[in-house]
Protein: Lipase
Organism: Mycolicibacterium wolinskyi
Amino acid sequence: METQEMVRVLALLSVIFLVAGCGGGSGDASDTAQGEPGAGTVVAEAPLDHLDQALRDAASSARGMTYRSRSGIDDDNTHVTGSVFVPKGNAPDGGFPVVALAPEVNGTAADCAASLSPNLGGNSGTVQELLKAGFVVFVPDYQGLGKPSDGKDIYHPYLDSTTAGYVIIDGVRAALTMVPEASTSWAALGNYQGGQAAWAANELVANYGSGLELVATASLSPIADFEGLADAAMAGTLTPEQKLIYVAFLAAVKNAYPYDFELDDYRRGNAEQHWDALMSCNESERMGLAAQIGPDDLKPASPEALAAIRGYLQKTTLPQGPTDAPMYVIYGGRDPAIPAAWTDSALTRACQMGDVVQIAFWPDQSHQGTSPVAALGWLGERFKSIPSANDCEAFLASHKP
């Protein structure tokens, strides 16, 4: 997007997301704190008039919202933005089913939010397909991305799986408020970081999703187990794609733990010099800068620093616990950021927890080749109460240590 157009969109959304009161304390999604509405409450809403015409034409309604959610790091009440689309036609008996489409993150600056882009950060086509299939579609921006109505600039806790899961669940609850003709039956679908968010929501929903009926989640090339980034940084073997993930994660940890985490133990040289630009929304620029980062520029300064960052990675890697609904995981064998072996490890642990997982491994694909549209048929069957296949027994048999 050109700079002038981005400024126009930011200004527009700053106006239409009307200013509301600040957030209260923590609690589950139905709680209130200090008299404030709880997580999942819509704070402000307005039309998304800046979207591509084809996307607006595909929906009977396209609206942006600010809603309350919850931090997975400190349980703070937060304001998050997202987009809600309603299909054309009359709702079926029981209401329109809902799909939360968790997008890939295209930079961690506030203006990298999907809702600020005319094509929803490249997700317009998937949203249109979901609308054609009769789903209400909710697209979150994630905490720290977008322009919430309270006007506060908060950081994006990149790859904090608990926060991402809360954002999904609370956003679905908020979407039901905006669309009375929607059903409480819902699913989550996501690619890459969004795949992590969908998976995390499935783990959290049993204790956090009161009043909602999760039927399934689909995660395509999910960033699930990424603990290996620590050792790769120490060895100086990070790929350019991994460098971008690692840098964004380091920045998020510093924001979350400003007094406990010494960022300069993990960055130097070109990484430090171009730090802010590495968070930008321009993917080609970020990739170019990542290629300039030397093998020692992101190396932990000591064994103690290595152990510390490994601990932070373990804190958010998936699985953290069993899932509540069937899960579909599609991943490729040629992903330069998340090796298949890392996803194999996550799936092994998930299956050992008793999860129901249908697994598709595409050996010649990277995460760019795993479009969310590939999971639409599978999700449709789950809404029809058709039982999911469970590949865990065969997967565990073929992935013995």
About this structure: Residues 98 and 186 are 5 Å apart (CA to CA). The longest helix spans residues 161-178.
